[in-house]
Each structure stands twice: as C-alpha cells, then as structure tokens.
Design a protein that fits this description.
With about 375 residues, the chain is α+β, with helices and mostly antiparallel strands. Helix content is about 35%, strand content about 15%. The longest helix has about 30 residues. The N terminus and C terminus are likely disordered.
Length: about 375
C-alpha cells in the first residue's frame, strides 16, 4: 500500500483526468479507496506540520538571546498538555494503520472465480498468456470482473504497476507471485476513420502507442510499467491494458491475435512478432550489438559457439534457438534468452524465419547450401 503511494509523485506527467490532479484516472475498485487514504494521511501530516513548524519559528524569535547572554532556565511542565500531544496523535496513527492494513489485505486476497491470466516478465518486455497457446504483450481484461495475474520472471526482479488501477506488485525470478484488480472503466474505441488514418501515418514501423494513445486495434488503453530497475532498457519496459465491455468482444480479440491473418504474408507476420515478443530489445536488425546477436547477421551465416564449434544459422538452428535458447550459445554472449516453447506456434516460428531471411545478408532466397551440396557443385 505504502510502496504504491511512494510511486504516486512519479505520475505527474501521466495525467488523464485533469491538469490539476496528481493521479491518473481512477479505473479500478481499488483506486478511490487508495486515493482517499493517501489524501487523508497527507492532510493529517499537514495538520500537524504547519502548527509545529510555526511554533518552532515563533519560539526561536521570542526566546532568542544575543550571543553570550545566559539562557533562562524553566523546569516547569504541563502534564495535561504533554499527555495530550502524546496520546491524541496515537489515535490518528492507529486509524491510518487500520485503514492501510485493511486496504492491503483486500489487495492481497484474490477473490474466488477471478479470471486468471499468466504474465511473464523478461528483459525488457511482457508476455501475457491467455491459454491455449495464445500469447501477446498487451493485457486485455473484462470490465467489472476480477482479474488475477499469475506472474513470473525469467531473469531479474521486475515490478508490475498499473497507475490507473493503483495496483503494483513485484515479479521475482524463481517463484510465482500474484496480484488482482477489478477494472470498473471500459476502454473506449476510436472511430474507424481515425484508426485507418493512424495506421497509414504509422507505416510499417513499430506501433507508436505514445503518439496515438490507442492500440493498433483501435482501443484506448491504460499504461502498465515496470517500476523495478532491471537494466539499461528498463525505461522501455512498458505495455498497455485494454478493458473490454463484453466477453464476446474479448474473445474476438483473442481469436484475432491467436493466428496469422490470412491476408498477411509470413514475412510481415514475422516482423510483427519480432516487435511484439520483445525480440527487438535484444536483437538489432542493423548489425549493432545488443544483448544478443544482430538479426542482420543471422540467417545463413556462420556462427562460432562458446565451445568453439562453428554452426550455420539455418532454419533448424533458428528454431532451436527460439525453443531451446541455452543449448547453442554464440561466443561472446550470455545465455539469458528465455525459451518460447509453447508460446509460438510452428507457423509463428516459420514466419520469424521468413522475416530473418529478409534482413540477413542472404536475403529471402532459400537456405544456404550445405557442405555436401557445395562439394557436388564443385565436382
């Protein structure tokens, strides 16, 4: 509860409701209670601070003595006054503790029947598991329905924070952690014309959530941040929360993102997965070195593994690197990539491979010749 309050001043630049509010829009059942408690504690502090600080300045002025003059001695005391300023504040402290503990326990107690969504945090992105192999970096939930997040980290400590929900929880590697909330404000949808115009202006690049303030499906959203420093790209570890009004609307979105659209090429779908699944945070496409090898130098090129063995980055190598990333580590890099086993379908992996061909030195042509084929050609 109080950890959440400590993060609130950081939200001054993320204002939804008013230019004069500290907090973003209240969008969950926790929000109103937390805000009320925050301001209650704040005004209690002000109520005590102002008169105490005023008395300090007044006494300094009234009883100040010139340098060298002997100070006056006053050993008298007022017992009722001392009891009053010792006992009365304790009632406020007890009240703050009781209300804070009640709010904390409410946020820790997940109601039965809550919709369960898996969340995996990694450097530097999020993956939401909607079941049946459907994964997506965006969090989509139902309005007026409790949602439970079953959270885990594949590397270091991260922290999920949804400002509009007043909900925050650490994600710790090596264990599962849980949080829940109930959104009571549904996400609005922009007009079809506005969405089409944004898609045209955005072009083929990564969707700019900050610029458009709605998703590529046309939903306005609430922000989700990582608030535990987790490395150099910590500041870009963000995603969005969309609140659907009906189960049918949510199911339609899940169905849409669960497979490649029929009108989309494997290369285009692979590029979308590259941007959505966090690949871009660790693998560049311009040859620059990041946490992992650049994809520009990927398909068709020779790699040297940490054990000194050479290997060609063909289809099998790329597939194994996605499903079993710690088996064949390229020399000069650490085994920090999480496995995507069970998260990507065969079509997804094939699409990623197709996209890697378009950004590699070999281009979109077939796999490079094997040593056996090269020998036959020379003969």
């Amino acid at each position: 509860m109080f950890a959440l309050m400590n993060n609130m001043p950081n939200l001054l630049g993320d204002q939804f409701a008013s230019k004069f509010t500290w907090f973003p829009k209240q969008a969950s059942t926790f929000a109103a209670e937390n805000d009320w408690l925050f301001f209650f504690i704040t005004w209690i502090c002000v109520l005590f601070f102002v008169p105490i600080a005023g008395c300090l300045f007044y006494f300094c002025w009234k009883y100040g003595k010139p340098k060298g003059q002997k100070a006056e001695s006053n050993t008298a005391h007022n017992t009722p006054l001392e009891l009053a300023w010792s006992i009365l504040p304790s009632f406020f402290l007890v009240a703050m503790f009781v209300m804070g503990a009640r709010s904390y326990l409410n946020q820790r107690t997940v109601p039965e029947g809550a919709n369960n969504i898996g969340l995996k945090a990694f450097k530097w992105g999020w993956t939401m598991d909607y079941g049946k192999g459907v994964m997506n970096p965006e969090l989509h939930i139902l309005v007026n329905e409790p949602t439970k997040l079953s959270m885990r980290s594949s590397d270091v400590i991260h922290s999920v924070f949804v400002p509009a929900f007043r909900a925050k929880k650490d994600v710790v590697p090596g264990r599962y952690n849980y949080m829940w909330f109930e959104a009571d404000v549904a996400s609005e949808q922009v007009s079809k014309e506005e969405l089409e115009q944004a898609i045209i202006e955005n072009g083929d690049g990564v969707w700019d959530y900050d610029k458009w303030q709605f998703t590529q499906d046309g939903y306005k959203f609430f922000d989700l941040y990582c608030t535990e420093y987790c490395g150099k790209n910590h500041s870009v570890m963000q995603t969005v929360v969309v609140v659907h009004e009906t189960v049918e609307d949510l199911d339609a979105w899940i169905e849409k993102v669960s497979k490649r659209p029929v009108d989309q090429t494997p290369e285009a779908w692979g590029e979308k997965l590259y941007n959505q699944r966090g690949c871009a945070g660790c693998h560049s496409i311009d040859g620059s070195k990041r946490v992992g090898p650049s994809f520009k130098e990927s398909y068709g090129n020779k790699r040297t593994l940490t054990d000194g063995d050479p290997i060609t980055a063909d289809e099998d190598y790329i597939r194994n690197s996605i499903l079993y990333p710690k088996k064949q580590i390229v020399a000069g890099y650490q085994p920090v990539m999480p496995s995507y086993q069970g998260q990507l379908s065969d079509d997804d992996i094939a699409s990623i491979i197709a996209y890697l061909k378009t950004v590699s030195d070999y281009g979109p042509k077939a796999a490079p010749k094997t040593d056996k084929e090269e020998t036959s050609t020379e003969e």
